[in-house]
Automatic annotation (TrEMBL):
Superkingdom classification of source: Eukaryota
Pfam families: Abhydrolase_6
Matching PANTHER family: ALPHA_BETA-HYDROLASES SUPERFAMILY PROTEIN (PTHR43689:SF8), HYDROLASE (PTHR43689)
UniProtKB keywords: Signal
Protein's UniProt keywords contain Signal: yes
Record's protein name: AB hydrolase-1 domain-containing protein
InterPro entries given in the database record: AB_hydrolase_1, AB_hydrolase_fold
Signal peptide: 1-23
Length: 341
């Protein structure tokens, strides 16, 4: 009874307070059909011994060279067609729209965390408050998207095609008038590759320096483990080619830089927002040439200074190299010294 008497009070209070920006968000499922050749990924991961051997191969000094080739054996001769029902969150009603692609060992929660006090970290709400609509999604294999095969489906060029399909969705079904792609880390590579194929109005890259020279400390420091044995309750349904970090501290090493973060945020990320990535994703990215010079849209590269995967822990003196990569862009701006990992 008390509850019923309280409802009008809550209703009045809700009207008096400004609505949180997220009120205008809804979770949706978007079927996307892609047709691209697939790499033949030869890595076969059954247990953490295999993962440790692969980590060694991917991080040794001459990785990717003749003595230690990528675990790939060419490509399928024909395109392979697949339809994936992508789990997404759409906020706003169109107009200028941001399409967000998260990185590996992340999910779309990266952009819109939901722990108490997370407002200051909520990129989606900040963007909505500035008048943008926002489409964020889980990459195939992640979170609310289908648990695709880790070798044959979860590949870079397939994910680029998925993003292109989502941009088409934004323009044709979600009333987007302009589209900017925003990526984090692996999602920055996906966003860049999409922007070489389709017309977009802006490209924002974070966790990105344009070089893989400093990839080894990231791969080694991640302390990769097979996700389904690492956490059967969360990930028991994934095949054994899905990998995650060994523990909270490995994850803190690759994503956060002390003293510029709250431990509770790293704990939330590890326990809630992080999702495994698929082993097919890395060699397919490394084997793809992205024609950065074809990108015409304005580009913003926004970097925490102490990023491990992009810069080996110090972006100053590395991210300036992006001006030699985006030679066709109308504008390139970079920020290399935000106090963050
Ligand atoms: C690592 O590379 C060696 C050859 O140098 C190869 O025999 C082995 O299968 C590779 N391991 C994995 C897990 O890819
Ligand atoms: C970036 O900055 C570093 C350090 O100042 C310098 O050595 C390097 O040549 C610069 N790279 C480019 C492409 O300008």
């Amino acid at each position: 009874m008390l509850f019923h008497r309280l409802i009008p009070i809550f209703a009045a209070a809700a009207q008096a307070l400004p609505q949180p920006a997220s009120a205008n968000c809804r979770d949706i499922q978007i079927p996307i059909t892609v047709s691209t050749p697939r790499f033949i990924v030869t890595a076969s991961l059954q247990d953490d011994w295999d993962v440790t051997a692969l980590t060694f191969n991917l991080t040794r000094r001459d990785s990717g060279k003749a003595a230690d080739p990528l675990p790939l054996n060419g490509q399928t001769s024909a395109s392979i067609k697949s339809t994936y029902t992508v789990g997404a969150t759409l906020c706003g009603n169109g107009g200028p729209t941001l399409v967000l692609t998260h990185g590996i060992i992340e999910s779309k929660l990266y952009w819109r965390p939901n722990f108490p006090g997370s407002e200051q970290y909520n990129f989606v709400d900040a963007a909505i408050a500035q008048g943008y609509s926002v489409l964020s999604y889980d990459r195939i294999g992640v979170g609310s998207s289908p648990k695709v095969n880790s070798l044959t489906d979860a590949q870079f060029q397939v994910e680029v095609a998925v993003l292109e399909g989502l941009v088409n969705y934004a323009k044709t079904k979600a009333h987007a008038t302009k589209v900017a792609l925003i990526g984090h880390s692996y999602g920055s590579y996906i966003s860049s590759a999409a922007a070489t194929h389709i017309e977009v109005d802006g490209l924002v890259l974070t966790g990105f320096s344009g070089t893989f020279d400093y990839f080894a400390p990231f791969v080694a420091g991640t302390n990769l483990r097979i996700a389904r044995s690492q956490n059967p309750v969360r990930w028991g349904k994934l095949d054994s080619g899905y990998l995650t970090t060994s523990d909270l501290y490995a994850e803190a090493y690759i994503y956060y830089a002390a003293p510029y973060f709250e431990h509770s945020v790293a704990e939330y990320t590890f326990n809630v927002a992080s999702e495994p990535f698929a082993i097919g994703e890395l060699p397919s990215l490394l084997a793809t040439t992205i024609e950065y010079e074809d990108i015409k849209a304005p580009v913003l590269v926004l970097q925490g200074q102490f990023d491990v995967s992009a810069c080996g822990g110090n972006c100053v003196g590395v991210v300036n190299g992006t001006k030699d990569i985006f030679t066709g862009a109308k504008v390139l701006k970079y920020v290399d010294n935000l106090p963050a990992g």
